[in-house]
Hints:
Layout: H1 2-37, H2 47-51, H3 54-62, H4 65-76, E1 79-83, E2 86-89, H5 95-100, E3 106-107, H6 128-138, H7 144-149, H8 151-179, E4 185-186, H9 187-204, H10 221-230, H11 238-251, H12 255-273, H13 282-288, H14 293-324, H15 326-342, H16 352-365, E5 374-375, E6 381-384, E7 390-393, E8 398-400, H17 403-407, H18 430-435, H19 449-465, E9 472-474, E10 481-482, E11 488-489, E12 495-498
Parallel strand pairs: 2-8
Antiparallel strand pairs: 1-2, 3-5, 4-12, 5-8, 6-7, 9-12, 10-11
Amino acid sequence: MASSGLLEALMPVSISSVLLTVAIGSLASLIVYRAFFDPLRGIPGPLICRITSLWTYWHSYIGDDCSKIGELHKRYGPVLRIAPNEVSISDGAALAPIYSERGGFMKAPCYANFDIEGHSTIFSTRDPGHRAVRSKAVVPVFSTSNLRSGTDTIEGCVAKMIARLKEEAVESRDAIKTSGKPKPVNVLNIARSLAVDAVSSYLFGQTFGGVSEKTDKMSANGYVDTLVAVGRFFFLPNWVFLALETSRQKLWPDKIEDESAHKVDGFVETLVKGSAADDSTYQGRLLKAGISKQEVEVQCKDLIFAGTDSTGTNLSTICWQLAKRPEVYTTLRKEIEEADARDPSYNPQSLPYLDAVIREGLRVSMANPTRFPRIVPSQGFDFEARNGQRFYLPAGTQVGMQPYTLHFNPDVFSEPFAYKPERWLDDPTPEMQRDAIPFGLGSRQCIARNLATMELFLAVRAIARENVLEGAQAVGEKIELMEWFNSKVKGETIEITWQ
């Protein structure tokens, strides 16, 4: 009886010990397998990345994963294992097979983290059929011919921005009289205001009125910044992402975020409710295609976010760079003055130096710096890197390329972190043309890229034509970013002063 009691007392300990031993053994086996026997074992990379995805999740969260992955590429080469089942490639030769040839590889599951209110957007959906119905309905509004017919609408928004910048320049100079130093002007906020007005006026037929808001922060900024912050969790499994976002909203509600979202919701709800199912507006085309009003509102909100954030970052970065390099600004003004004298009705995209100023701005601004993850299809992916090594990625591997690494590759762009528009004038190399991908690549690249490009050309031309940046100086030595899917400018300010 005593022996039986002793066994009963020891059994729970023994079972616990066995379970612990099994757990430790299973974990050890998984680590050994991932490090030395996994199909990706031949892809170089740090041991921590072979074992767990926590390294990439952490650096994505703190906003330095693009530069960290860039450093790893310098150490390990152009094909790099950054997680147990994820590979990053820095060789531009891989762009076409991954993103454009035969439609490119399918988007990774993590794109679902950019769904809005339970709806997949034109950007986030992985289903080609789901996207085709929606993109087919709205693609015509982004055609060159339609954009040209809408030039006056966009020019009207630009004119309001120019007037706002002139007012801010006067206030900046006047501050010297009272405080002894000029008042910094946040051109990021003003550029975002133009972007949301151009998108809403041209596509929706009703302006949001961002430029008219004479405040330090436009009312839509809180909404935009909230979705930008989603990017820090972009690579997480969707169930983890949803748990974190739900917890954040319940435990740490943000009044500014809520008020901004309410403003955008109200604007979109009104314009969709008052729209007919016809071809006259973006929302009308979606309604005509049979999309529900609730989803149409979501698609419009997604466009407001993407158009405001990316174009705002790109335009304000170009303004800051022009203020920092007055010789570039002077050359740009001369080209525009000469073009105006010849024929004021010219297409601004025909001017080579203006084109170079904008292309270089898009290269360095890093509105979307991180990798665009795709899933290797059933046939696998066989790739020969520029160093002569061949790599094979099996089906199901997540693979991506990041603009940060491509745009700042010194082998392709000399002095990669320097803003040098002239690099695009002196017969740019095929590699430069290939690797500059500010709007993505292939069938899934930014659907509004033509509109965003037109905004930039019209806005930068107007800034130079009106000599808005005379006496302007860039604040700070560089623009610091959180390297999320959509980059976050630290402090949410890109500032210029006027002397």
